[in-house]
Design brief:
Number of helices: 7
Strand content: 5-15%
Number of domains: 1
Number of strands: 4
Low-confidence stretches: 189-195, 202-210
Shape: globular
Helix content: 40-55%
Strand order of the largest sheet: 1-2
Order of helices and strands: HHEEHHEHEHH
């Protein structure tokens, strides 16, 4: 209980702050590479839902063409999966596009370990049980990410998240971080393979994906 209520946040601040200092040269290299590869901002921001349903802006390195550049010469829109840039493809495979979320962790929007932050339209479909995943700060990585990543359906991911919310300990967080490192080193392909009702969105989300 002490770890969940106090020490977890202290560790988030210390670890994310140190990581930002140590990785600052890598941030600079990635930023320069993105700018040389395509037009547009280096950082992609998107509104997500955090702890207690509080909205916040999540930060990522941009991995896709901007909306303005997402059309063929004849005006036909480019499909989302084809909007990924060469640099963006590498960043996605290595999960380096997620590094700016260390800023989210440092300022208190997120935690190192927790349920992944979701979009508002997804949260609106939660029932009272599923909404319990919002009782804690969302994480850079989490139990669902090391238990199958995007091969899991939304229901399966949420069940993993609820299991995590019910049993938050230092040892468990440490194990999840170690497993995350192994998953990243494998550079698994990030592709959502088991969509279901909660992941469907009726509107055009081309502007919201990066």
């Amino acid at each position: 209980m002490i770890y969940k209520k106090y020490l977890k946040r202290v560790m988030d601040i210390i670890c994310s702050g140190l990581a930002l200092l140590i990785l600052s040269p890598i941030f600079l290299i990635i930023a320069l590479t993105i700018r040389l590869d395509t037009r547009g901002p280096v950082i992609f921001t998107q509104k997500r839902v955090g702890k207690d349903k509080e909205p916040f802006n999540i930060y990522k390195f941009r991995t896709m063409l901007t909306f303005e550049d997402s059309f063929y010469e004849d005006g036909t829109p480019i499909e989302n999966y084809d909007r990924k840039t060469k640099v963006g493809n590498f960043l996605r495979k290595t999960s380096l596009d997620e590094l700016p979320q260390l800023i989210n962790i440092f300022i208190g929007d997120m935690s190192i370990v927790g349920p992944r932050p979701t979009l508002l339209y997804q949260v609106e479909k939660y029932n009272s049980t599923q909404a319990r995943r919002l009782e804690v700060r969302p994480g850079l990585t989490g139990h669902a990410q090391v238990s199958g990543r995007n091969s899991l359906s939304w229901d399966e991911k949420i069940q993993c998240d609820l299991d995590y919310v019910n049993r938050i300990t230092f040892l468990r967080d440490f194990k999840i971080i170690l497993k995350t490192i192994l998953v990243v080193l494998k550079t698994e392909k990030v592709e959502f393979t088991k969509p279901d009702e909660i992941s469907k969105h009726s509107g055009d989300i081309r502007k919201d994906i990066s």
